C-alpha cells in the first residue's frame, strides 16, 4: 500500500453546508444508488434545473459559500486507488474511487469560479464516490501552491484512465492519445432585455428592428425600460460549469471582453452560455436567456467569431430571442503521438536558438501563435534563459538610438522575455501588485486629475488621491523585491551589464537601469496594472472609471521606472512630481536588487507538505517507468510540468494547416532552409499520425 497526505481547503456550497448540518439518514444495505441520475440530463426542463442549481446554488459568488480546512489521504490498494477527504481530523466527507476516473475528470478549475488560486476539480458520478451528502457537484480542492497542484494532478491522473487509442492485449503502448482545449472570448452583449412586467413580447419585437439598441431606446417607452441592469454569463461545457464572467452594469449592452482557456477537456458535445441578471442584495439571480452551440461538429483549429442569439424559453410559448452575445471560439483537438515520433523534429529545433525559430515562423510563415509552445519546449530543456541572453547580446549592440528603441519594439527577445516572466513570475506578480490592485478594483476608485475632464476642485483633490495610491502600490512592489525569481535576476543582470558595456557614454543618463525597467516595468508590471483581469489580479475587466485610474497610476510608475520627475510632459500630472522625486533612490535600490542573483540558496527546514510532495514525486517517477510511453508523457511533474509531445503536436498542426492554406511561390533564398527542413520533419509526423488513425478506422 502507498499513502500520501496533504492539507487543503475544500469547497462547500450552501446546499452541501446545509446538508452537513442535518442528521444522517439511515439507508438500507440493499438500497442501490439511483441509476437515473445521468438520464435526468436528457430532458430540457430538468436540464435547466440542473444548470441553475449548479450555477447559483452550488457555485455562487460568495453568498453562503464556505471553504473549510480538510485533509486528503490518497491510498493505493493493489489495482485500486481511493482519495479520502476528511473535514477536521475524523469526519469523512467524500471517498473518490480514483481508479474509475478518466484523465479529463481531474483538471484545474478556472480562476473565474473561485477567489482562490491552485484549485483542483474532480468531476465524478455518484457511482464513482461515496459522499456524506447527496450532491452532483464536483469536488473542488484548493492546494497550497502551484507545485502542489501539478504534483497532485499528475499523481491522481496516474491512477486514472488516459484517453489512449490502439491499446490491445498484445500491445499496451497504444498508437496515439487525444487532447482537447476550448478557447472562448466572451466579448459583449447587445439588445439584452430582462423580464419586464409591462410586456416582454412587445420589447422583443421592438428590439428586433434593424439598428435598434438599448442606448437608442425612447425614454418614454414603458415596455423597454432604460434602467441599467447587471449582467453576467456562466459558461458550460457538456453541462459542467467551467467559467464565469464578471458582473457588468449596462443598458442591455454589457462589455465583458474576458478570455477563457479550458484545457484537458473530455469529448466535446455542447457549449452553453447562460446570461443572468444579478439581483441585489443577496437575491437569486434571474436567468435572462441562453446560447446553445453544438461542439460535436464544430470546426477544429479555426477561430469562429460572431453574434449568437440569446434565447428565452417560456412555459407556454416557443423560444424568443432576448438579445445577442458576441463570442470568439476556438477548439483544438490534437492527435498526440509518442515522444519518439517527434525526436527528429525536436533535434532540428535544438540546432538553433528558439527565439530565431519564433522570429522565422512569424515573419516568414506568418504563424504568430507558436511562441508559447516553443517557449514551453525550451523551458523543459533548460534552454530558454540561455537563448534569451544570447539574443540580448545580439540586440544590445551599441547601434541605433537607445533612448527610443531599446526593448521598446515587439521583437523576439521582448516577446520571449514576456513568456519567461509569465512562466516564472506569477507568484512574484501577485506579491508585488495583487493586494493593492484588487483593493482598488473592488472599491471602484475613480481618479481624474485632468481639469479638461472634470472641475478644478475635484482634480486638485484627486491629485492627492493619485499620489497616495501610487505610494501604496510602489510600497508593495518595493517590498516584494527580495522575492524576485532567480531567472529574472540573471536576465536583468545580463541586460544591465550589456547596456553598460555597449553604451558607456549613456551611463550618466541611467540607461543601464532604464533598460532593466524596460523589461521589468514596461513589459511586465505596467501591462498587469493596465489589464489586471488578463493577469489574474482581478475578475473581469475593470469599470471604465477604474481603468482611467489604473492608466494614471501606470503613467506615474512608468515615469518612476524611467527616472523622470515629470509624467510625459503632462502639466496636470505635476502633482505627483514630489512622489517621483522621493521614490527615485528606492527605484535605484530596487533595480539593483532584482538584477543581482542571490549569493546562496536559502536553506530552510522542509515543510511536511514538501516532504510528502517529494516522496510522491519520487514514487510516481518509479511507477512511470512501467507505464506505456503515451501515459507516461502525459504526466509531467514540477519543476517543469510541461507535456512536450503535446507542445510539439501544436507546432505540427499549425505548420500542417499553414501548408494546406497557402502554397507560396518563391525563389529559394538563404534563410529558408531551416524552415523547410523543420516543415518536412513535421510533415512526416503528420503522415505517421494519419496512418495510425486510419489503422483503427
Task: Summarize the structure in words.
Residues 27-58 and 197-225 have low confidence and may be disordered. The two termini are 40 Å apart. The strands form 3 sheets. An 8-stranded antiparallel β-sheet has the order 5-6-8-1-2-3-4-7, sandwiched between helices. The radius of gyration is 28 Å and the shape is globular. Strand 2 and strand 3 form a beta hairpin. 40% of the residues lie in helices and 20% in strands. With 697 residues, the chain is an alpha+beta fold. It comes from Vararia minispora EC-137. This is Rho GTPase activation protein.
Structural category is: alpha+beta
Strand percent estimate: 15-25%
Largest sheet: 8 strands, antiparallel
Q: For the terminal residues, how far apart are their CA atoms?
A: 40 Å
Uncertain residue segments: 27-58, 197-225
What's the arrangement of strands in the largest beta sheet?
A: 5-6-8-1-2-3-4-7
Rg is: 28 Å
Overall outline: globular
What is the count of helical runs?
Answer: 20
